Amino acid sequence: MEIVELMRKIEAVSLRYSKKYKIKREPNWFVLKLQEEMGELTQSYLMMKGSGRHKNKSKGELRSDFEKELADVFCHVLLLAKSNKVDIERAVDEKWLTWYKKYTKAKK
């Protein structure tokens, strides 16, 4: 799936969620929601690694929770990018993939 299509689907889910729960997605909401999700990711990571209460969850459940929280963070990064009109593909290309291009050229 292309990133633009993925972002479109994530936006649709987020919009429906915000309408259902009467959440106003104002500009600050996107970054604050990302921060909230980072906290949840951190908590689930610590639980999975044995550095937090496991709440009687199995290793498999802890791993699944971690993966879901990671997905939440990823999706909220994309929502933040979209809400600020960031071409995330271009930004990643300029910030990260220029290094990849340099490294692969150097190996030749």
From TrEMBL:
The organism of origin for this protein: Candidatus Roizmanbacteria bacterium CG_4_10_14_0_8_um_filter_39_9
Record's protein name: Pyrophosphatase
